[in-house]
Amino acid sequence: MLHDTLESVVDLVEETHESVAKKPERWRGNAARLGEGAAGVGALQGGIARLVYESIRRVNRGVEAVGGLAVSAVDRSGVGPLLSEQAALALDAEVARELAWWSDTAQSALNAWAGDFLARRENGLSIPLEFFAAGKRVGCTRESLREVLPEATGKLCIFVHGLGCNDATWSFRAQEQFGDPAANYGAFLARDLGYSALYVRYNTGLHISQNARALARAIDELLAVYPVQVTELALVGHSMGGLVARGAAHYAQLEERPWASRLRHLLCIGSPHLGAPLERATNWLTHLLMRFDTPGTQVPAKLLNSRSAGIKDLRFGYVLDEDWTDKDPDACLRDERNDVPLLPHVTYGFVAATFTRDPEHPLGRLLGDMLVSVPSALGQSPEGRHVRFDLGEVVAGVHHIAMLNHPKVYQLVRRFLSSEILETTCEEVVFEALPRLPESA
Predict the structure, then answer these.
(1) 317 and 273 in contact (C-beta within 8 Å)?
(2) What is the pTM of this model?
C-alpha cells in the first residue's frame, strides 16, 4: 500500500508541476518574439521533469519488488509466523482485541475511499467479501459454520454494513446502551425469534453492483454448506448495505440462484435509495474547482475526484451495472439510475430517521438522519420515481450511525421479521403498512 500511495502522490505532484509550468509558458507564448524560445524552454523543462518523476517511479517499483521477495523469503523460512505468534503471546488479550479493532476500522475506512484502486492493484489491503459471526471469520465449510453457529436454525438473517464500516459496527455503543459489548440486532433476533445471524464484511469502495453480485454468489456458496436447511432467509442492510442487499436479491433472481426463492424479507435501514446529498455536493464542488485553472483549485479537485466508485455510486443510489457501465462517473449531477425490479414473493421494508425529535420538523425532513434525507430513505422522489416498499417507518431523534444498534430501530427490525404489522400510534414506533404501487406507476 505504501508503494501504491507513493506512486499516486508522484502522479499528483507531476500534474501540479505541469499546471504551474504551463502558465508562464502560455504567457511568454503570446509575445511574438518570445514564442519560439518559450516553446523550447517549455519542452526542455517538461522533458527534465518527466525524467525525474519517472525515475522516482522506477526506484519505487524496484524497492517494492525487492521488499516482496524479502517478505516471501521470510514466510518460506517459517521465521515470520513464529515471530507473529511470539508477539501475540506478549500482548494482553484485551490489548490485542483493541489493536485488531483499530486495524479493522482503519482498513474499512481506507477501502471506503480507495477500495476500487486497491482492488485494481490487487493490494492485500483490499477487503474480500466474507461472512463473520461473533467477530470471527466464517469459512464456507460445514465445519467452520458449525463452529461459529453451533445452534444454527433454519431461519437465517444476513446483515450488510454500510460505507467505511465492517461487521463490528453493528455493535455500535452496545456496552453503553445494553450493558453488553456483544449486544446487537443479530443477538436479539436469536433470542426473540430464533434467527441465526451472519455479518458480511466487504470492500465498500467497489461499485455497489459489484458487491451485490459478489454477495449473491457468496450466499449461494454459504447455503450449499450450511449445517441445516434454510427455510427462511432475511437480508438487513444499513446505508450502502441496503443498496447492496437490494442488488444481491435482484442478481440472485436474474442469475437463477437457488437462494432467491428462500428470501422472505429485505429491510433497508437508513439507505440512500435516491442518493446522498453529501456526495452530490462533493460532485458539484469538484466541478466548480476544476473550472479554475490554478494549482490551488486543481489539486483539491483531483484529490476529491480520487474518491472511490462506491462513494460515487451513492450520488444517486446506483445499484445496477448498467447505471455506471460506459458512463462518465464524474459527470456533474447527471442521474443515470435505472429501476431495480423487486422480487414478488419478498417483503421489502425501510427504516428512515430524523435527527430531530419531531419527525415532521422541516429541518428533520430536509436533513433526515444527517447523512440520508427522509425521501431518499423512503425511496420516494418528487418526480414520481419510487422504490416500491411494502412497509416502512420514520423514527425520530436517531442519527445515521446510531441506527446500526438502537432500541427504537430494533423494535422495527423485530416486528418486520416476525410479520407483526401494526398501525402507527403516537405511543410507540412501529411499522406502518404501505401499499406497494403497481409497476406501471
Answers:
(1) yes
(2) 0.81
List 238's β-bridge partners, or say none.
Answer: 269
Q: Which residue has the higher pLDDT, 295 or 427?
A: 295
Strands 232-238 vs 263-269: parallel, antiparallel or unpaired: parallel
CA distances from 284 to 278, 279, 291, 352 (A): 10, 9, 11, 26
C-alpha to C-alpha distances, 5 to 105, 260, 373, nearest whole angstrom: 19, 40, 34
Show the cell assigned to 146.
458449525
- Does residue 428 sit in helix, strand or coil? coil
Amino acid at 393: E
- What is the distance of C-alpha 55 from the center of its chain? 36
280: Cβ contacts below 8 Å, ≥ 6 apart: 315, 316, 333
Give residues with Cβ within 8 angstroms of 147, minimum separation 6: none
- Contact residues for 210 (Cβ-Cβ < 8 A; gap 6+): none
Residue with cell 432467509: 233
Residue 392 has pLDDT above 70, yes or no: yes
Task: Assess contact for 394 and 374: CB atoms under 8 A.
Answer: yes
Contacts of 226 (CB under 8 A, 6+ apart): 142, 145, 152, 156
Contact 227, 152 (CB under 8 A): yes
Q: How far apart, in whole angstroms, are the C-alpha atoms of residue 60 and residue 440?
A: 57
How far is the C-alpha of 351 from the C-alpha of 435, rounded, in Å?
Answer: 16
| Other beta carbons within 10 Å of 58 | 10
Amino acid 184: pLDDT: 97
**Plot region of 33 (φ>0 → left; ψ -120 to 50 → alpha; else → beta):** alpha
CB 390 within 8 A of CB 347: yes
Render pLDDT for 21-49 as a digit per residue (tens, 0 to 9). 555 555 555 555 555 555 554 555 555 54
Phi/psi at 274 (5° precision): -110, 10
Stretch 118-142: mean pLDDT? 94
Distances (CA, A) of 245 to 114, 196, 279: 22, 18, 20
